[in-house]
Amino acid sequence: MTRYYIFSNPGSKEKYTEVSEQRFINEVINSKTRYYISFNYVLLECSREEFKADQAEKDRSRYISQLSTGVYPTFFSFDEDMDQFEDLCDNEDDDAYEQAAVALFWKYVSTLSKDKQLVLMRIRMMREQIPRHRKHAEVITKKR
User: What is the pLDDT of residues 81-132, one digit of tens each?
Assistant: First the structure.
């Protein structure tokens, strides 16, 4: 059974007074200016500073327990690191778009001078050596 404690009235010998659940909810939990700390089966009214310190300690404990279970927070930039993830979606619209983009590329290349074609071909060949994922490389090689 959970017990609830609020600050005693000024002049009282005791710092806390035990109250009913309903009174605690009405006076402390529903208030925007009063704070409490939970100790499993005890809810104790506290100051804002004590509340913030308790929340910081709980966050720290949660972080340490995640580290001990092998769950590590990971931070990466989508712009730099997305190439390492393989595209697992087999979407026909993506394939059609990719094929149309490759066809448009070759149509554009055919309108350029021979020197510019050679430069673009070299760039394309260098890119194919390190494809983003297997499907991307297959579409490019099929169009040649």
Answer: 455 555 555 566 667 777 888 788 778 777 888 888 888 777 777 766 655 5
| C-beta separation of 27 from 9 below 8 A | no
> Which residues have a Cβ under 8 Å from the Cβ of 128 and sit 6 or more positions away?
137, 140, 141
- DSSP string covering 39-101: ETTEEEEE-HHHHHHHHHHHHHHHHHHHHHTT-------HHHHGGGS------HHHHHHHHHH
* Residue 24: Cβ-neighbour burial (10 angstroms; 0-12, 13-18, 19+): buried
